[in-house]
Amino acid sequence: SQTIHQWPATLVQPVGSPLSLECTVEGTSNPNLYWYRQAAGRGLQLLFYSVGIGQISSEVPQNLSASRPQDRQFILSSKKLLLSDSGFYLCAWSSQNRGGQPQHFGDGTRLSIL
Amino acid sequence: QKEVEQDPGPLSVPEGAIVSLNCTYSNSAFQYFMWYRQYSRKGPELLMYTYSSGNKEDGRFTAQVDKSSKYISLFIRDSQPSDSATYLCAMMASGTYKYIFGTGTRLKVLA
Fold first, then answer.
1. Mean pLDDT across B22-38
2. Cis before A18? omega within 30
3. Percentage of chain A surpassing pLDDT 90?
4. Which of A25, A73, B31, B32 satisfies CB 3.0 to 4.6 Å to B92 for a cystine?
């Protein structure tokens, strides 16, 4: 069966520090991968998605970037964190084998910027 | 107007009640519909997945899609305190990579 791992679960960082959040998927190959940010009462905001290694689409201009160095690895990064980057970050995957497949989520990283 | 509208709640019901959760949408191109359950400080968990119109049942959960009204529902029978969570609807058009989510309805089932 497929599993998705996200870490760390919680992170507290000072303003201006760098960020690296990692997500890996097991049990499937060539998945679509996604990064979301979830704010209370505002639903899920799509940040980045990737349909293959090195292929990244950005949805919202911001202080963050994403990379996919391996087929089942997705990384969210920042060179200098802002206070506004605080939030709950979720990684998700879906199958490319057939269209319209549902997404499956990791357990998220709660990021607090001080 | 948002593409997907969902009442944020909270919705409080007694244990054993039938719960009805709903979403409306404006994009007639949506063909794939999902319901997720999200517990506090956890990622969303897929509950139901349906294609096009109709009903789908899985245990205590029933998902309904009415494309003519652009309206989807999730029914929970014999609700339990463990069903207390936020429920998110999501939908997707054919040929795209993007999922559009509702903001979620917070459900409380009281023992």
1. 96
2. no
3. 81
4. B32
What residues of A are in contact with residue B94 (Cβ under 8 Å)? 99-100
The number of folded domains in chain B is 1
Chain A residues close to B43, C-beta within 8 Å:
6, 90, 92, 105-108
Q: Is B68 on the interface with A (CB under 8 A)?
A: no
Taking the C-alpha atoms of residue A94 and residue A106, their distance in angstroms, rounded to an integer, is: 12
Place of tokens 């199958």: A95
Candidates B41, B92, B104; nearest CB to A43: B104
Q: Total domain count for chain A?
A: 1
Model confidence at A97: pLDDT above 70? no
- Domain region containing B60: 4-110
pLDDT over threshold 80, residue A99: no
Show the tokens assigned to B56: 């789908």
pLDDT of residue B24: 97
Q: Which CATH number belongs to the domain containing residue B16 in this structure?
A: 2.60.40.10
> Tell me, what CATH number does A69's domain have?
2.60.40.10
